[in-house]
Design brief:
about 180 residues; 7 strands; elongated
């Protein structure tokens, strides 16, 4: 079974034994703290870029400084989601007060909003899919989220855990090689 959850909830389910393995993410400047009894292995770093409508003044740029985005309307994840909290915290750390005008949990929905001209968004490369109507621009400074496999320490010797983690790493490797 697959169950999509926020990282903190997924980790609680691992600790309680309701999940064997959870894929969770954190951000380079907002690390996730794991409780005792939980192991993790870095599966991959997922780079994050800026998504703007194709007719946006920045659309033809190769890169943009985060501080150049002070007056932009933002499309992000819902309040309370790890990605929303990371984005608003990061913007504030760079002296920006984010104007979040729209929220959506799904990356494709966010990209559709960007394509419709409703704002800009940061977009992890794993979440991209179709970018029709959207320009993708590198951000400076660069950001990435880290994707981990997590499991109970007591389950570390279970062959199923080792096989699943190895498969996840193989898939991540194939994604970063392409």
């Amino acid at each position: 079974r697959v169950s999509e959850r926020q990282p903190d909830e997924a980790i609680r389910l691992v600790v309680a034994g309701h999940l064997d393995i959870a894929l969770v993410n954190d951000w380079m400047n907002a690390p996730l703290v794991l409780p005792n009894g939980v192991e993790r292995l870095l599966i991959m770093n997922d780079a994050v870029d800026l998504a703007v409508p194709v007719d946006h003044p920045l659309a033809e740029r190769r890169s943009v400084e985060l501080t150049e985005l002070s007056s932009e309307p933002w499309i992000t994840w819902p309040h309370g989601a790890i990605c929303h909290e990371w984005l608003t915290q990061t913007l504030r750390q760079h002296g920006l007060t984010p104007e979040v005008t729209h929220t959506a949990e799904e990356h494709q929905t966010q990209l559709a909003m960007v394509a419709a001209g409703l704002g800009i968004a940061v977009m992890p490369r794993l979440g991209r899919g179709s970018t029709e109507g959207v320009s993708i621009i590198s951000l400076k400074p660069t950001f990435s989220r880290r994707v981990y496999a997590t499991w109970r320490t007591l389950a570390s010797e279970r062959p199923a855990i080792a096989v699943a983690v190895a498969a996840l790493r193989d898939v991540a490797e194939s994604l970063t090689d392409s």
